[in-house]
Amino acid sequence: MCKEQMKNIYLPYEARIEDIKVETEDGNLKTYRIVFEKDEDKRNWSHVPGQFAMLSIAGKGEIPIGIASSPTEKDFLLFTVNRAGVVTTALHKMDKGEPIGVRGPLGNGFPVDGELKGKNIVIIAGGFAFTTLRATLIYLLENRSDYGKITVIYGARTPGMLLYKDELKSWQERDDLECHITVDREAPGWDGLVGFVPTIAGQVKPSPENSAALICGPPIMIKFTMPPLEEIGWKDDQVYLSLENRMKCGVGICGHCNVGPVYVCKDGPVFKRSEVQKLPVEF
Amino acid sequence: MSTINEKITTEIRKVAKELLEKDEVAAFLGYTEGTVPMVMKPFVARRPEDVEKLFWNSFCVLNLANYLPLVLQSLEPPRRPNDPLPEGPLPRVGVLATGCWSRNMVVQIKENQIERERVIIVGISSRGMVDRKKVQAQVDHLEITEVIEEDHKLIVKGPGFTKEINRWDVVRDNCKSCVHPDPVIYDEVIGDFSGGRQVPKRFGDIQEIEDMDIEERWKWFQEEISSCIRCYACRNACPLCYCPTCFVDDSRPQWVGKSIDKTDTALFHILRAFHCAGRCTDCGACESACPMGIRMRLFTKKLYKDCMELYGFEPGLRIDEPLPLTTFKLEDPQDYILQQGQKGEEK
Amino acid sequence: MKPLALFKSELDGFLKELSRDYDIFGPKRQKKGYLDWGEIEGLSDLDLSPGVTKTSIKSFFLPQPEVLFEFSTRAREERAFRLKEPKCPDRKRVLFGVRPCDARSIYLNSMPYKDDCYFQKNIERNIVIGLFCKAHLSTCFCTWVGGSPTSTDGMDIGVYELEDSFIFLPFSQRGQEFLRDKGLREIGQKEEEQIDAYKNHAPEGISEGVDIAKEFSQKSLFDLYDARFWQEVTDPCLNCGTCTFLCPTCYCFDIQDEVLRGKGRRIRYWDSCMFPLFTLHASGHNPRGEKVKRVRNRFMHKLKYFPDRFGPISCVGCGRCVRDCPVSIDIRQVIRQFLEI
Ligand code: SF4
Ligand code: SF4
Ligand code: SF4
Ligand code: SF4
Ligand code: SF4
């Protein structure tokens, strides 16, 4: 670039798909394990749980995807991708070993080394929005002593639609973590919880005392999860949400993701609920 | 003495007020004054007192049919895309219509974009709308700060000049060659109808282009669209362009590149014109809306001419006439459309 | 540095001399009658009539399209992207006759584009020679939004057009260097007096002493967002790209890959918050699916969101959107309505 001293914020790191795992029974969610081509890129990369990156496929374009791996997982990045648009469909057709671009990390992430330190953490997730919360959870567990009680409430439509099934099992077995996994309806072979995430949250009744809740899921889930929490004393500034909007540049310039004066890509995607309430509902 | 337009304005207000007061319509779609000379603003009167803002003059260049579907929809109770319409009659809209606008309403009715029962069409015979770009050319593109309209002339003022212009000299090209100034469907009428017009060389402008040799014509076309900024005002001003996702915006698949590129821009204009074939009424809204002065109406008018010559068809004249490009006749040469056993020879 | 001067009769030679080292662009009368940017080879190409050009200066800073990089179209087979950043153009450009409003837009746009190397590259490439206004159009309102006919924001050099001469003043380091070796003479006494008279022209301000940027920042977002007038403002709007594409301070873009004749490139090109697809999610959900939300966003972004973030209003009062909106939607009216809230 001609402005040599400036970093080109649009240039992706060259990377490669190392592994692909089909996550859900409908095959629409796959987790991609991605490694950098250049060692220096790998060294320079550092992210916070809750951040996202732009994945790039030559000739197809870019798409923002939450980073599903924790910064403590050093050698690779994980992205769980839902097939929805042009780029994600193309990505779903790709094989191991194929080249992919990674631009980021972008956005703010959860304040795991800030406000969340020393607190009890409640993670509430629905559907495929669990990805960056997986990153967060791994990070919390790696630094277990920095946090208080950790509670996870995670639900999907059916057992087959749950992400990271092996890990869920291992988390359920741990005694330093309370893990409630639920599915919407009874299903053959499922002996776990049954019910929507908001209902389960109402039953679990996580204490708001010195706590923070990190909630990711479809807008409708978030809407119904709030009342039972509020009932037991949760305040809006204890609740962290991750917003989604159409994004193009990822650095707060191109204008696509604005919600009022804030840019989801740059000022978010993580916002306290109390901040979201000061914004127009344009997400 | 009031001018023709002032009289029409008074009439419009009267009719609109009555319709709104009697609850015959929930909204009345007309024109109000803009803030710069020679640009009028489509206006939705929702309360009887709003009608005082309605105006009529020679600068009502956009086609009000274009606004009808959205205004009608805005009056319906909110529902999700696939929910059925509520029971019972829905609120109606009153709308002004000149010849071409009313013809576009016919097209809209035939293409199921509006329902005849829900619109009260107030017909006005058009005297031809004025092209503000022509007025600007008449004063060497100096800034115009005021235009006073009389029946047959415009008095144009700017810093340090006043000029009288013969109205007909600056009437839009499409209006000058229009033979259908009277509305074809209407529920109320304002003013007198003209009874039709004779135009000596209705397609003279098209003939000129047809007479060019291929290279010359391609050069003309390229030149004409060279300053297009792809703002799509032409498309958005057109009552025919109602696709939820236009081919230029579609990304699955992507038909046209999105930035300013000669080929992409040409493709946009050619395809837009073809999508309007057999439907375009030559209302001129597209051309009037264009900020760059591109005469893309000539492309659609060529297809208008073709449609007339090939099918003897003019769009929007009759509500009971089938649309040429969505109608198949057994005599049509394209028999691939038929199933076995339906082909002509078995007749 | 003292102001430098050039007789009008010398401008042609000056431009011709310049054109050896620079590509020069300036306001030019177009076939269709309006002024627009065009390549200038000599005085006869230039038209310095009052008022702004049809399109704004932004095409030189945010070109349509900007190539971000090229890549191999055989990335899959070759197992590598082979990204290639665009080469630097070796010739610099002189933008001559940039009106103060357009120049100010460069200054405003460089706020969000601070870290954007492509925009910054264009800043380096373009030498902005502004031309102060000695007359204005009825659609000009720079004085409402923090500008003026003699504003120097965004200019490397500013020029006064006097009776028989042009006066050049540098406003940046680069401007100084540029002027140094161009053989201009020092300004004369008479000319200095003429400059002072020149400064008396300005569009009328909105109202004495009102700083609307400050005023709007102090207003509550929801008071403006939920204001009653939005539906009426929206009704006539076509949701076209005219206002945003002609506007110097509208800077939104989209990014896309193009594969053309065996070459792949990632480009960015103008986009507009007036278009329904601007905010459409892949899921089909659209946070600004209704027209009124889009129209509101355009004005809110310019008059409230941008000032909340960066300070000034994101409008330079050039009046292009007012002049060319096909349905006469007028930002000045919206500003007035904002003030009433
Ligand atoms: S293409 Fe132009 S002239 Fe034809 S109906 Fe549409 S707006 Fe009117
Ligand atoms: S209105 Fe004019 S500039 Fe805009 S897309 Fe149409 S032809 Fe091009
Ligand atoms: S305000 Fe005017 S120029 Fe802007 S989108 Fe609406 S109709 Fe087009
Ligand atoms: S909003 Fe209108 S007046 Fe303001 S800078 Fe943009 S085009 Fe000019
Ligand atoms: S008004 Fe709309 S298009 Fe213009 S800069 Fe703001 S958000 Fe972007």
Describe the structure.
The complex is a heterotrimer of chains A (283), B (347) and C (341). Chain A has eight helices and 15 strands. With 283 residues, chain A is of the alpha/beta class. Chain A folds into two domains: 13-106, Translation factors (Elongation Factor Tu (Ef-tu), domain 3, Beta Barrel); 120-242, Rossmann fold (3-Layer(aba) Sandwich). The relative contact order of chain A is 0.13. The longest helix of chain B has 18 residues, at 4-21. In chain B, helix 3 links the parallel strand 3 (93-97) and strand 4. Chain C has 341 residues and is of the alpha/beta class. Chain C has one domain (4-340). Chain C contains 13 helices and eleven strands. Chain C has helices at 8-18, 75-78, 100-109, 117-125, 173-180, 189-198, 212-218, 221-225, 230-234, 242-246, 291-310, 320-324, 331-339, and strands at residues 4-7, 22-29, 35-39, 66-72, 92-98, 126-131, 157-161, 165-170, 185-186, 253-260, 263-270. In chain C, strand 7 (157-161) and strand 8 form a beta hairpin. In chain C, helix 7 (212-218) packs across helix 11 (291-310). At the B-C interface, strand 2, helix 4 and helix 8 of B face helix 10, strand 10, strand 11 and helix 12 of C. One iron/sulfur cluster is lined by residues 228-234, 289-290, 292, 294, 296 of chain B.
- Name the helix and strand elements of chain B from N-terminus to C-terminus, one letter apiece: HEEHEHEHEEEHEHHHHHH
CA-CA gap between termini of chain A = 35 Å
| CA-atom Rg of chain B in angstroms | 22 Å
What is the end-to-end distance of chain B? 67 Å
User: Which two protein chains have the largest interface (Cβ within 8 Å of the partner's Cβ), and how many residues from each?
Assistant: A-C, 47 and 57 residues
Side-by-side strand order of the widest sheet of chain B: 2-1-3-4-8
Q: What is the strand tally of chain B?
A: 8
Low-pLDDT residue spans of chain A? none
Total strands of chain A: the figure is 15
Instruction: Tell me the structural class of chain A.
Output: alpha/beta
Helix fraction bin of chain A: 10-25%
User: Major beta sheet of chain A, specifics?
Assistant: 7 strands, mixed
Question: In a nutshell, what does this entry contain?
Answer:
The complex is a heterotrimer of chains A (283), B (347) and C (341). With 347 residues, chain B is α/β, with parallel strands linked by helices. Chain B has helices spanning 4-21, 68-75, 99-110, 132-138, 173-176, 204-210, 214-225, 233-236, 262-275, 285-289, 297-311; strands at residues 27-33, 40-45, 93-97, 119-124, 146-149, 153-158, 161-166, 188-190.
